[in-house]
Please model this.
Amino acid sequence: MSEDTTLPRPLEGITILDLTTALAGPYATLILAGLGARVIKVENPRNPDSARTNSPYLGREGLKVTREHDDDLSLAMLERGRNKEAVTLNMKHPEGRALFLDLVKHADAVVENYSAGVADRLGIGYRACAEVNPRIVFTSISGFGANVQPRQNKAMDNIVQAMSGMMLASGNPGDPPVRTGIPFGDLSAPLFAAIGTLAALMQARATGRGQHVDVSLLGALSSLVAAEPFEIMAKLGHPTRAGNFMARLAPFGVFPTSDGYIAICAPKDDFVSGLFRAMDRPDLMRDARFATRDARVRNHVELHDMVSAFTRTMTTDAAAERLTDFDVPNGPVREPAEALRDPTLLARGETAKLQHPVYGAVEDIVVGGLPIRMSGAFTGFDKPAVTLGASNGDVYGQMLGLDPERIAALARDGVI
Model:
C-alpha cells in the first residue's frame, strides 16, 4: 500500500449504502471502503449491527470482556467499520423507507446481506431502488442465493462449511469433520461480492443501467472447494482427506521439526533435486521410486516419511535455512499472533494495528489490512470506525440537504 494518502483513491467518487451486518456483508463493504469508496453504514437505531455487542471491547482502559463505558467499542466493529460512515435509520418506520430511497438517489450501489426476500418485504429491494435510480447496483449476499428460500434459510459460516464439503476435505481419513478455524464461508462470499459490485459499476458507467448482483455463501465456498479435484482423486485411489500432505504433488506437505513444523512444497523436479541435496541424498533422484513425478506420487507415503525423518533432526529455523540454501520452497508454521506481526506484512499494509477512534492504539492489536497495493493510488484504511449514528448530521444534512431541526425531529420520532 502506498503510504501517500494524498494520492487518489481507486473508487473515489463512488458512494455505497451499506445495509450489512455481522461479518460476510461488512467485510465486502470494508474492501470497497479500503479502495476509496464512500461507504455509509445504515443501521436500525434500536437494533443495530449485532457486531457492536460482540465481546471483547476496546476503550480507555484497554481490552475488556464486558462493555464498561459508553465509548468501549467491540473489536469486531472497530475492525469492520474502518473508513466507513455510520448513520441510523429505522426501515420499518413509515418515513424510514422514503428517507432510504432518497439516499439511493445519490448512491452508486447498495450492499445488503438480509435473508433472501427480506429487502423486498421492507420495500427497499432492487426493484424499489432501481425505480428511483436506474443506475443503482444492488448487491445481495445471502446464505443460499437471493432467489432461493429453503425451509432452513439461515446460513452461518459453520453451516456453510458443513454443506459445502469443506469439513470433509481436511483432516485424516476416518476423522470426524474438521471445522476450519478461519471463517472461509463468511469471508469468501464478500470477496466475490466486491468483485461483482465493481464489475456491475463498470457496466453501469458504460450503459447507464444498474443491476442486481447475487452472491451466496454456499455457492462461493463450494466454488472454492471445487477448485481441488477431490472426487476425481478419490476415483483414482487417493483419499479425499490426506491430512497435512498432498499425494498428487509429493513431496508436498507439513513436516515435523525438533521444535515445531515446516511446510515444504516440491512438486517440480528442480525442487525435488534441491530437497534431496539438502537431505545429503542426491542419489534419490536416480532412485526409480522417486526419479519422476508419477513415481513420487505412487510412493508418496515412503517419500514423505523420509522427508519427515530429515526435518526432525533440525529446528524449524535451521530447516528453513537449509532448504532455502538449496532453493526448496518452504515456510515455517507460525502462530497467528506471530504471523500477523510479520514486519513485511505490516509495512505493506496487509495487516494493520487497530485503533480506537478516541484513544488510538491503546493495545497491541493487529488485524487484517487491505492486501491490494497500487503504484498510483492510496489503498487501505486510514480512518478508525465511528460510533453508531455519528455521521447522521453529515449524511442527512449534506447529502439530502436536511436542516438540523429536521434531523433532530427525525431522531425524536424514531426514524433515525
Q: What stands out?
A: The first strand starts at residue 15 and ends at 19. The chain has 17 helices and 14 strands. The first helix runs from residue 24 to 34.
